[in-house]
Amino acid sequence: MSLKVGVNLLWLVPGVVGGSEGYATGLLSRLVERDDVAVSAFGLPGFVTTHAALANAMHTVVAPLPHGRHVLRRVFVENSWLPRKLKRTGVDVVHHLGGIVPRSPVPAVVTLHDLQYLSYPEYFSVVKRRYLGVMQGASLKRARVVTAISEFTRVQAIEHFGLDPNNVVVVPPIVREIAVPAASQRAVVRKELGLTRDFVLYPAAMYPHKNHATLMRAFAVVAADHDVDLVLTGATGAGAWGSALSTEVSVRALASQLGVEERVHMLGYVSTERLAALYGEATMVAFPSRFEGFGLPVVEAMSTGCPVIAASATALPGVVGDGGVLVDPDDIDGWAQQISRLLADPAARHAQSEAGAARARELAAFDPVEPLLSAYRRAVA
After folding, report:
1. Are residues 189 and 312 in the same domain?
2. What band does 5 get if pLDDT is binned at 50, 70 and 90?
3. What are the CA-CA distances from residue 134 to residues 109, 118, 243, 244 (Å)?
4. In the chain, where do the E strands start and end?
């Protein structure tokens, strides 16, 4: 008999929530292929339109919410409408992929992406910090099993909340092979986006912890000696109900202040296909984020053979391994030196490309669906 799993996706606002969207859709796309599990998803109208193929592959129930990020209404729906639907659907276990467990009539599993608010409280309002301070710990203890997206996140959760280590398991993201489009298709994307030079790519939502300012200052140093552009992709950032506000305006202002605004391309959220083309065309990916629960874009870049420079912080060193160069996230000179080194040395780029691809293959060889199903069965038992 198939295990009946409900999945709470009411938090998933496409193009807004950042890397957690790719994490959730990646796992679900693999989960629906299994014969031993039946998935019922409870999501927003935007999820159904953005991820139509995935929504059609599951029993998808659309919540009575409008498009967009309506946090208070969503919390109400999670604690009223969702429990009723879970009971009527007859699921064995519910998986809350957004980190918070509302009132639940069935055994619950919760995914913890990160605990950034503990390390960088200044990125959150007093209201948001208090909310997380109350809800995060309670949710982790209310769930029968907690899944963490990396060992770094798992250890941090156990140490801070005193969780039973046996009930906290690592379920990393699905590492998918990124199919880089042919050169002719990449040329079309370059033309459409107005990219005429070599470029450094940073795929990250516009939030303070992503640390765009350090990269911008380092790039200004590099641009004085190299004919190169900087391409920034990723969600604008929501700034909803106490989350850190989007840094888009300040990053644009800094580019202007440093005199490199014409060399910086801020593309916003791009499709998977366009991002694959950018990975294929980029000279390197620079990823100076101060805090990552995992850092999937870094792995995606390595899988395409794009050389990676990443921050030596939080989960990134454990994910990158020997596949890239690590730099302190706030060392402007260090970032400028490493970017300049790769720009000037094709042999170094090739060696790093090979190392990154090998590391990505190691990560892709692990199937996270197995520990996920074990977590479901443990919760039910």
Report:
1. yes
2. very high
3. 18, 13, 16, 19
4. 3-9, 37-43, 59-62, 93-96, 108-112, 145-148, 168-170, 198-203, 228-233, 264-268, 284-287, 308-311, 325-327
- Encoding tokens for residue 166? 């046996």
Q: Which domain holds residue 90?
A: 3-174+366-380
Q: Whole-angstrom Cα distance, residue 141 to residue 301?
A: 35
Q: Residue 1 has what pLDDT?
A: 64
Give the Cα separation of 281 and 190 in Å (integer): 8
Rg of the chain, C-alpha, whole Å: 21
d(CA 287, CA 305): 15
Question: What are the DSSP calls for 319-333, one per residue?
Answer: HHGGGSEEE-TT-HH
Q: What is the pLDDT of residues 138-151, one digit of tens each?
A: 999 999 999 999 99
Q: Do 195 and 141 fall within a single domain?
A: no
pTM of the model: 0.86
> Looking at the structure, do residues 300 and 371 belong to the same domain, yes or no?
no
Paired residues of 111 in beta bridges: 147
Statement to judge: residues 130 and 191 lie in one domain: no
pLDDT digits (tens, 9 = 90+) for 20-38: 888 999 999 999 999 999 9
Quote the number of domains for the chain.
2
- Position 145: which residue type? V
